[in-house]
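re: ur question from earlier - yeah i can do the single chain one, its not a big deal. heres the input i used so u can compare w yours
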Amino acid sequence: MTRDPMPRDAEVSPWGEMGRDELRAFLGDAARLWLAHDGLWFQAIERRGGQELAIACDRDAWAQFSPLEARRIRERLGLAPDGGLEALDRALRHRLYAHLNPQAIVRPSPDRLILRMITCRVQEARRRKGLTDFPCREVGIVEYTTFAQAIDPRIETRCLVCPPDPPAGDHACAWEFTLREGG
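and the output i got, formated as tokens:
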């Protein structure tokens, strides 16, 4: 009979010991580590196979991750699967990115929602390393479209500005979301 090296009653979890500020700091750090891993993964593929392959792999990964993240957020917040732009507004505020990049959500009309990424940690990190901006439009279209449609399949996504586009105004990228006619 083998003996468990650590009995169950000796398990340690930090959650009960952390206060609200500590939990927020932990979540922010976890989000930064998640993004660092994403960037390092991308750069490893970029070094081995070039940027075109790295973008193709990134697009495929986001096509799977974004709807997974959206569904988990929708379930956690108790959002209806047909909650429209109101549900998307709430869900966008709970993405991991919301803990990393300053962003703004505006509602110019009841049938439109615009997400503006004010600064982008990905582009800032690449610039610090002397790398060119990541042309993320192609990946972003997959990411934001699959996220929004996992919140509500009637939502349509349009890129307003995103690299390789030149910067526009006070934001790194901007995305517009609308409900399909009859939505």
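The mean pLDDT is 89. not sure if urs matches, ping me
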